Amino acid sequence: MRYAAIGLGGRGKGQMMELLNVPGVEYVAVCDNYGDRAEKGADLVEQKTGRRPKVYQDYRELFAREELDAVLCCTTWVTHGEIAIAAMNAGCHVAIEVGGAASAQECWDMVKTSERTGKFCMLLENCCYDRNEMAVLNIVRQGLMGEIVHCAGGYRHDLRDEIAYGKENHHGRLKNFLARNGELYPTHELGPIAKLLHINRGNRFLSLVSVASKARGMADFLHRKQPADYYLQGAQWNEGDIVDTLITCANGETIHLTHDCTLPRFYSRDYAVQGTRGLYQESAFGNALMIDEEIGTFQGWNHRPANFDDYRAVYEHPLWKAYEKGGIHANGHGGMDYLVLSAFADAVEHNTLPPIDVYDTAAWMAITYLSEQSIAMGGQPVPVPDFTNGAWIEREPAVPSIFSCEEIYPDLFAADTALENSSTATAESVLPLQASP
Ligand SMILES: NC(=O)c1ccc[n+]([C@@H]2O[C@H](COP(=O)([O-])OP(=O)(O)OC[C@H]3O[C@@H](n4cnc5c(N)ncnc54)[C@H](O)[C@@H]3O)[C@@H](O)[C@H]2O)c1
Fold this sequence. Notes:
The protein is an alpha/beta fold. The protein contains 17 helices and 15 strands. The protein starts with a strand and ends with a helix.
């Protein structure tokens, strides 16, 4: 299949090369605003494949000249939407890296363009394929946690360096933290939660409220790290250090998101799922699972929940079992990058809807501009648009696929046993071959 890669910063370069590990992917063109980055991207592809893709600095020119099946877009938060729309209008399926939307219009345009062109737009939410999140999905779908009532998660990542030196490093985050105040990066935790709660297929986000703390982290960091005449000293940082968002869902669940990138902090997504019969809680101090049926309802104040790793061995998601058997590609985030890219390439190859479709993409990305509106109005509730236009109530089932991050189809993994004896049954060949037609 003929691909183009657009946006070749740190992430784009990595994703472009990781996607090349999936069989059937060929790059005919690469593009970045910065000519040196585009040339470097072409060098990398040529070194690996022996074929040099064409180099562009303007994606419009690329779409006008190249015949493509699909586009990998890893640019910036405020450019993903427009490039996705241009790609679909040019007749290509498109995958975009994660980030939030700037407006309702951007989300609706992505949805309407996908519906009109028949091309899909997939948000590359790799955390939907994280090993732990997938094992939790498996545990929930097997009914061990009862009915899910509340979920939580955060993007809790100390990015002060990356944000502060955005100008020097040509990095996109800086301008957003100066200009905006909202849940800028919701989808790492929200993607798996939305899939767990069947958002857009039987459930939907109804409304949200967001509040932001004061913004002090960046100014204090630069005060200590840079001389008094550094150009950002005294800058007005708008993004609150801690932004909390509460989403309510049509089926009654609540979701709590936390954005936390400008204070001292260890990395964690704090993924939590709480049902009538169990709890999963990610923690840097050890992930925990509590299941009523196994430990009884109350074990005393000092009770320590079970170590999640013990459960994971039992409730490993079949995709991860197959992946481990074939040899995990740990290049990107422990292997989940390869899985999300495989899901994208599989949908391109079979011309089917991907497991994360344009309605998911729009609903998840919309949380950003909606949270900005809520914060601007002092934490007022704001409605979340229904990008399916009512179809969520009785939407047709998703395409069964081993890459589904919402349902589990054990039958689709049965072929694994047949392939086990094959000498070519590596992760690279097995995963795409097992995929749904
Ligand atoms: N899923 C993950 O785990 C993960 C990890 C890191 C980054 N990301 C996401 O990936 C995206 C890229 O991240 P990054 O760190 O590489 O950012 P970056 O700002 O360093 O790089 C973006 C690149 O896109 C290029 N670009 C911007 N607009 C363009 C346009 N109109 N046409 C062509 N090129 C354009 C820029 O020149 C730059 O080289 C972001 O959305 C980021 O949030 C995701």
